[in-house]
């Protein structure tokens, strides 16, 4: 099956920043189709390529700007542990902190709120406790 540019772009983004969503083909397909339709509509309205692409990006990445996975990865990078399979550990910690993150409203503007610092601290403490408990450091 041949996928659109937007499908592939969104899929790559999800693999990197939202791996829990990267296998949701229905979501990726519908979002990428909407992005394609947005590009066509913007072109018909006379927007230039850059303006069209800005509109497409708004549609394609809506609700996806904040990445809990990236936050977990950043925290683990700061701890500076050496693992044979760091990606696996990051995913494990990402899944482990889901209940913590569930207490917050994670939207596109989340990083600009005071709640972000609270979540960061809470997740960082949780990961550090896990590392100490399992003597990984």
SSE diagram, text form:
Layout: H1 5-17, H2 25-44, H3 49-60, H4 68-79, H5 86-96, H6 98-101, H7 114-133
Helix pairs in contact: 1-2, 2-3, 4-5, 4-7
> How would you characterize the largest beta sheet?
none
Q: What is the total tally of β strands?
A: 0
Q: What percent strand?
A: under 5%
Estimate percent helicity: 55-70%
Label the structural class: mainly alpha
Distance between the termini: 46 Å
Query: Which descriptor suits the 3D outline?
Result: elongated
Order of SSEs, N→C?
HHHHHHH
Detail the poorly predicted runs: none
What is the average of the pLDDT values? Answer: 94
Output the number of helix runs. Answer: 7
Radius of gyration: 18 Å
Explained architecture:
The protein has seven helices and no strands. The N and C termini lie far apart (about 45 Å). The mean pLDDT is about 95. It is about 65% helix and about 0% strand. The protein has about 140 residues and is mainly alpha-helical.
């Amino acid at each position: 099956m041949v996928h659109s540019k937007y499908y592939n772009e969104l899929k790559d983004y999800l693999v990197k920043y939202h791996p829990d969503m990267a296998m949701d083909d229905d979501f990726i397909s519908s979002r990428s189709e909407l992005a394609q339709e947005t590009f066509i509509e913007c072109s018909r309205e006379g927007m230039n390529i850059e303006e069209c692409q800005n509109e497409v990006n708004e549609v394609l990445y809506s609700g996806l700007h904040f990445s809990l996975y990236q936050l977990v990865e950043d925290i683990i990078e700061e701890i500076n542990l050496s693992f044979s399979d760091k990606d696996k550990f990051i995913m494990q910690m990402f899944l482990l902190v889901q209940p913590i993150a569930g207490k917050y409203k994670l939207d596109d503007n989340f990083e600009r709120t005071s709640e972000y610092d609270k979540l960061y601290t809470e997740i960082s403490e949780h990961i550090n406790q896990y590392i100490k408990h399992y003597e990984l450091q």
